[in-house]
Amino acid sequence: MYSVLYVDDEDALLEIGKLFLEQSGQFRVDTIDSAPAALALLNAKTYDAIISDYQMPEMDGIAFLKKVRTSGNTIPFILFTGRGREEVVIEAINSGVDFYIQKGGDPMAQFTELTHKIRQAVQKRQAEAELRAAYEQLTAAEEELREQYDELARSEQLIRESEENFQSLVESAPDAIYISVGERFAYVNPAMVRLMGAGSADQLLGMPLYDRIHPSFHEGIRERVRVVVGEHKPVGLKETVYLKMDGTPVNIESAVATFRYNNNFAGLVILRDITRRKQDEQLLRESGDTLRKSESQLKRAEEIGGSGNWELWLNENAFEGSVGAQILYGLQGPAWTLEEVQKIPLPEYRPLLDAALRDLTAGKSPYNIEFKIRRGSDGAILDIHSVAEYDPERNIVFGVINDITDRKKMEESLVVANREYTNLLDQMQDVYYRSDMKGILIRASRSLATLLGYSELAECLGRRGDSFYFNPADRKLFLEEITRNGSVTDYESHLRRKDGSMVVVATRSHLCYDAAGNITGIEGTFRDITERKRAELALAESEEKYRLIVENTRDIIYTLNTAGEFTYISPSLTRVLGYSPADLIGHSLLSLVHPDDLPTVREIYRRSIADDYRSPGTESRVRHASGEWRWLITRGETVRDPAGNILYFTGIANDITGRKQAEEALRTVNRKLSLLSGITRHDINNQLTVLKGYLAFLEKNQPDTSSGGYFTKINTTATRISSMIQFTKEYEEIGVHAPGWQNCRTLVDAVAKQVTLGNVRVKNDLPATVEVFADPLIATVFYNLMDNAIRYGGKIATIRFSAGEPGDHPVIICEDDGDGVPAKEKEKIFERGFGKNTGLGLFLAREILSITGITIRETGVLGKGARFEINVPDGSYRIRGEE
Predict the structure, then answer these.
(1) Taking 50 as the threshold, does the pLDDT of residue 867 lie above it?
(2) Dihedral of the alpha carbons of 112, 114, 120, 121, in degrees to the nearest 10
(3) Facing residues of 343 across strands?
(4) pLDDT at position 469
(5) pLDDT at 36
(6) I need a surface site. Which of 293, 350, 384, 444 has the fewest CB within 10 A?
(7) Are 481 and 488 in contact (CB under 8 A)?
(8) Phi (first) and psi of residue 321, to 5 degrees
(9) Contact by Cβ (8 Å): 830, 846
(10) How far apart are CA 333 and CA 310, in angstroms?
(11) How does DSSP assign 19-82, residue by residue?
């Protein structure tokens, strides 16, 4: 037997469905009237399948399906609904529904199909689960086998790579390498072939080893072999003489090791040609005499040039200096201790010198440093420049020092002269500048930073010239002009200040040349002429403004500055929006625009400024002086001067409020017609399905007299259908008649006579002069409020209507002393279909009120009674006689 969960907001459908399904004996059916409750039940109980309606309050069938699938539950899910639209079917399939069955038609055939679909979906899901388990076992076995194979492949690859790397290393080694087996060559690398002068490796392979070694070294080689092989001791490097194929001797330095080669005991020998080194050693010995002869000449040269050289023997911490070094440092003798030398530089240079020496010996950076010393012989302060190189093999540092005291004094004098020149430039009121061939600013007066709003001149130096232009492309025009003529006078340019604002300057500039006549850059001065240009622009603005006013005398004509602030508004502003022009001059246009329309207005204004976009007509809501919102359509454009600079933005606005109200009314009517068709089609279809179901049971069970209960249910269902049809009639009337001023006290009194009140008293405390601008069906709102209070208020005695202003807007209050509304239902009671009767009364009330912007909400306290507040917007509430 399969367990099934059936979800529908229609109790009658749940009952008839349970009867049909359980009569076969194949199913056990649990019913529940909402999707949220079903989700909670699924957490506590397991089912084989789910049947769900589509259109339900709180959560519809597809949302319920998505919640089930999102939780990871793959339970078969059948959507059983009266909604047959294609988009609903597609969304259900995409969300993971198993079957989709539409209500309506013959109940017996319909529930027979439902029974078949449930069995089919459950059996399919069980088969999928078994197949999935088998596949998972197969996948696990396959994965284990694949891991074992991959591990074996990796091992084989590592072996191949190791062999290939060793072969590549030996074949490409610069040193000669050979393997000897039984005192014969068994392997030689290419370097060995070249060293021996052989044509190929084949000439050496198999040859006796000693044929290629000078006879005078045979005994020594045999002794090394005995030590390595017999005593298993390592031997160091040995200098030997090998013989090339043509008998030419080669000085060799060799190393040897033993190993197994092709299952034979073998020797691995590495040879390095040291012929060049031997020749260098001989040359070094021969040059010793020459070097000693030139020492006296070097000493004289050092004395004349103020230089010296030194050697630092790091292993012994010993320091040797030439005669020139001795004179510069003021020390006696050629050899000094490291401690003596380290005292000569001024103390503040000690860390710098130590770091430079460490970096040199570590190979990080060369030794090239300037420092000051106090000469030991007379205490004189000297500037020293030293460079050095490091010999890592001997661990010796060799360096040269030079006395640069005179050069440093000259540099200081140059710095002083440059400072005086800079001070002179900084006194200039006009701006001096110079740029190189790349357009980089290399010198300027302090007044440049002041003019462009920079705190320091350093912020300007080193930047490209076009970066100072308001429009960088303008610099190209300037360069073309000065290149063509060699100089410019009173040339106007637009520069950008640090804050982004523009400054206009007039420059006198010329090309700079070097001694060979090559252009090296541009030099010149310029001054600020922004105020003069502003005066010229103001005149142009005045002329342009006068032309627009003359040509456009209707509606609102206005101009804005680049900040979007009004600079001119025509007198028609008062007639359209109720302001005087003086009220808005200097204020932002955006301060009047409705918040929902601000993004559109901002984008149009931005495009007008950036791209000279001309809007064909922008519709937006603008605040009237009275506080109401008026619809305007605006057309405008950006006005620029001959140079393309923005002067201002001008626009013309037309009042289209009447047209927009008509459009909104039409949209409201269309929306209500669409809603009507959806409501009636769904709900009436459900009720007819119930009727047909019960009739089917009557036909099957007649002439059993117990069928009387079914007749009662059929009668109840028919009554509900009648109520729904009555709702469609009332809803069609919404918006048909134009809204008008309604006297609420009179309407409440009239409606109270139509409602069956019983023992309930209606207390009408609304002022006799209070009127609201609303649809004539507002009387239906008051009727539904009274009817709901009597139906669901419990022990209710009084219903009271009153007026108040608890917030920003006037409020009409309907309250009773009944049971009240639970907090979680305060918004749900206005939803279509919520409630124990038709579920349409309060939904209809909210729709009627919304036509003129009126809202309704429930604010009562549970146990003390319900309280409905009807909030009336500004302009829709008045006291008769004050209008």
Answers:
(1) yes
(2) -170
(3) none
(4) 94
(5) 94
(6) 293
(7) yes
(8) -130, 150
(9) yes
(10) 12
(11) HHHHTTSSEEEEEES-HHHHHHHHHH---SEEEE-SS-SSS-HHHHHHHHHHTT----EEEEES
Torsion of CA 402, 403, 404, 410, to 10 degrees: -150
Q: Which residues contact 210 (CB under 8 A, 6 or more apart)?
A: 183, 218, 221
Dihedral of CA atoms 625, 628, 633, 636 in degrees, nearest 10, equals 30
Structure tokens of 703?
A: 């002439």
pLDDT at 775: 86
**Residue 127: pLDDT band by 50, 70, 90 thresholds?**
confident
User: Cα(first)–Cα(last) distance of the chain, in Å?
Assistant: 75
- Alpha helices, DSSP H, located in 231-363: 275-305, 323-329, 338-342, 350-361
Q: Per DSSP, what are the bridge partners of residue 249?
A: 243
Tell me the chain's radius of gyration from C-alpha atoms.
52
In this predicted structure, what is the pLDDT of residue 22?
Answer: 87
Question: Looking at the predicted structure, is the pLDDT value of residue 146 above 60?
Answer: yes
Q: Mean pLDDT over residues 478-502, rounded?
A: 93
Give the pLDDT of residue 763: 95
Query: What residue has token string 């002086």?
Result: 625
The H-assigned helical ranges of 173-214 are 190-196
List the Cα angle 354/359/360 in 5-degree steps.
100
- pLDDT band, residue 550 (cuts 50/70/90): very low
Query: Per DSSP, what are the bridge partners of residue 496?
Result: 502
Q: Which residue has the tokens 């007039």?
A: 506
Angle ∠(444,448,450) on CA atoms, nearest 5: 140
Rounded (10°) angle between helices 744-752 and 778-792: 50
Question: What six digits make up the tokens of 408?
Answer: 């440093």
> CA 245, CA 233: separation in Å to the nearest integer?
32
Confidence of residue 503 (pLDDT cuts 50, 70, 90): very high
CB contact at 8 A, 461 and 452: no
User: Which pLDDT score is estimated for 232?
Assistant: 74
3-state secondary structure of 689: helix
DSSP code of residue 739: P
**CB-based contacts of 99, cutoff 8 Å, min separation 6:** 78, 79, 117, 120, 121
Report the candidate in 7, 33, 57 with the shortest Cα–Cα distance to residue 843: 57
| pLDDT tens, position by position, 169-189 | 778 878 899 998 888 999 999
Task: Report the DSSP beta bridge partners of residue 125.
Answer: none
Taking only the tens place, the pLDDT of each residue in 604-660 is 888 877 777 777 788 899 999 999 999 998 888 888 888 888 888 888 888 888 888
Using an 8 Å Cβ cutoff, are 213 and 240 in contact? yes
Q: What is the pLDDT of residue 525?
A: 92
Where do we find the tokens 């409905």?
A: 868
CA–CA separation, 6 and 18 (whole Å): 8
**454-463, long-range: CB < 8 A, 24+ apart:** 454/498, 459/498
Contact 749, 863 (CB under 8 A): no
pLDDT of 204 higher than 60: yes
The contacts of residue 769 (CB under 8 Å, 6+ apart) are: 879, 880, 881
Integer Cα distance of 219 and 222 in angstroms: 5
What number is the average pLDDT over the span 227-238?
78
Q: In sequence order, which residues have a C-beta less than 8 Å from that of residue 142 and are 6 or more positions away?
A: none
Q: Does residue 499 contact residue 453 with C-beta atoms inside 8 Å?
A: yes
